Amino acid sequence: MAHLRAQSYHFLFFFLAIAIASAQLSPSFYDKSCPGAFRSIRSAVYAAVLKEHRMGASLLRLHFHDCFVNGCDGSVLLDDTPTFTGEKTAAPNNNSIRGFEVIDTIKSNLEAICPQVVSCADILAIAARDSVVALGGPTWTVQLGRRDATTASFSDANSNIPKPTSDLSTLISDFSNKGLSATDLIALSGAHTIGQARCTTFRTRIYNETNIETSLATSLQSNCPSTGGDDKLSPLDAFTPNSFDNYYYKNLVNSKGLLHSDQQLYSGGSTDSQVTGYSSDLSKFYADFKAAMINMGNISPLTGTSGEIRKNCRKTN
Ligand code: HEM
Ligand SMILES: *[C@@H]1O[C@H](CO)[C@@H](O)[C@H](O)[C@H]1NC(C)=O
Ligand SMILES: *[C@@H]1O[C@H](CO)[C@@H](O)[C@H](O)[C@H]1NC(C)=O
């Protein structure tokens, strides 16, 4: 009897330890140490999005590209140094990711009210949420307590960030490799309801693919030549590019996805029904998007005494 009881205490401690280890992030992490953090970040994000709507899209994407490369650890923000090549010039990021000046402004505002408290990785997670809200999307409670990496990986950015040329099976396994489900993949791809893409990322689709609506392909070709003009921009959602709605999915159902990878989500495969569902049920999309953002934000955070709290998001302390 006594032996059994001792054993059940062991089990209790074991499960408690697991619960603590997997729940290290918390929404109240800065409640005492930086109660003004949310308000400060939100006002900078709203100002930036008011100035340029696209900035909301760019900030959301920064969090994604941070999380998919060795976890949500602020690594994407590190500048190259003479002895170190960061992630900014890796193929998915070079001449593409943006918003670093907004993150710098947020960080310097926070350093003025609570020095070296709020991590750059958490700033990205909060700015992503505030950006979605600023463009008319849903809100959610952001988990916090991530710390910042002291390294970044050019090669992992090249290999871990999903490619616009990928087919559905590859996209599903890219997400699965990060602990995210196919449901998360479809819901998170709804982020492409805002923002822009460069000609180089969709040229083959608009000239050579057959599952694209003809009039959309023709109109996109006028701003994306078959050679040259790599950096010319078109909206990922041609209809409501500055509004966080479900037009992304309505587009897919009508063969109006911009990227090859977008249209793959609705191309006769296992994910068609989820796309159709979101195209006709905005609140279902919002509910799943919120849950998927929290899942993505939980990818391998640095916590406890790992990593550091950077003073400047562009460099290690
Ligand atoms: C499913 C795999 C994904 C692929 C293959 C992909 C690929 C791309 C590509 C090629 C662009 C255009 C980049 C450029 O031309 O400079 C882009 C833009 C964007 N992506 Fe994704 N993406 C994916 C998932 C996501 C996710 C999960 C999010 C966020 C939750 C996201 C958010 C965005 C946003 C907001 C933009 C527009 C950025 C801006 O205008 O600055 N993407 N994506
Ligand atoms: C990044 O883009 C710049 C400007 O187009 C180019 O000169 C540079 O070679 C690119 N870097 C890498 C690593 O591809
Ligand atoms: C379209 O396909 C043809 C034939 O394979 C190829 O020569 C051409 O470069 C492709 N065009 C684009 C824009 O990808």
From TrEMBL:
Q: Which UniProt keywords apply?
A: Calcium, Disulfide bond, Glycoprotein, Heme, Hydrogen peroxide, Iron, Metal-binding, Oxidoreductase, Peroxidase, Secreted, Signal
- GO MF annotation terms: heme binding; lactoperoxidase activity; metal ion binding
Q: Which organism is it from?
A: Rhynchospora breviuscula
Q: Which InterPro entries match?
A: Haem_peroxidase, Haem_peroxidase_sf, Peroxidase_pln, Peroxidases_AS, Peroxidases_heam-ligand_BS, Secretory_peroxidase
The record lists the catalysed reaction(s) as: 2 a phenolic donor + H2O2 = 2 a phenolic radical donor + 2 H2O
List the SUPFAM superfamilies.
Heme-dependent peroxidases
Pfam families in alphabetical order: peroxidase
The biological processes this protein is annotated with in GO are: hydrogen peroxide catabolic process; response to oxidative stress
- The EC number(s) attached to this protein equal 1.11.1.7
Intrachain disulfide bonds = C34-C114, C67-C72, C120-C313, C199-C224
Per its record, how is this protein called by name?
Peroxidase
Active-site residues, as the UniProt record annotates them: H65 (proton acceptor)
The residues listed in the UniProt record as binding Ca(2+) 2, with positions renumbered to this chain, are: T193, D237, T240, D245
Positions bearing the site annotation: Transition state stabilizer: R61
Q: Does the keyword RNA-binding apply?
A: no
Question: Top EC class per UniProt?
Answer: oxidoreductase
Give the binding site residues for Ca(2+) 1. Answer: D66, V69, G71, D73, S75, E87
Textual note on the cofactor: Binds 1 heme b (iron(II)-protoporphyrin IX) group per subunit. Binds 2 calcium ions per subunit.
Function per UniProt: Removal of H(2)O(2), oxidation of toxic reductants, biosynthesis and degradation of lignin, suberization, auxin catabolism, response to environmental stresses such as wounding, pathogen attack and oxidative stress.
Task: Name the family.
Answer: Belongs to the peroxidase family. Classical plant (class III) peroxidase subfamily.
For activity, the cofactor(s) needed are:
heme b; Ca(2+)
Q: Where does substrate bind?
A: P162
Q: Name one GO cellular component term.
A: extracellular region
Instruction: Report residues binding heme b.
Output: H192
Endpoints of the signal sequence: 1-23
| PANTHER family on file | PEROXIDASE (PTHR31388:SF247), PEROXIDASE 72-RELATED (PTHR31388)
In this chain the Plant heme peroxidase family profile domain maps to 24-317
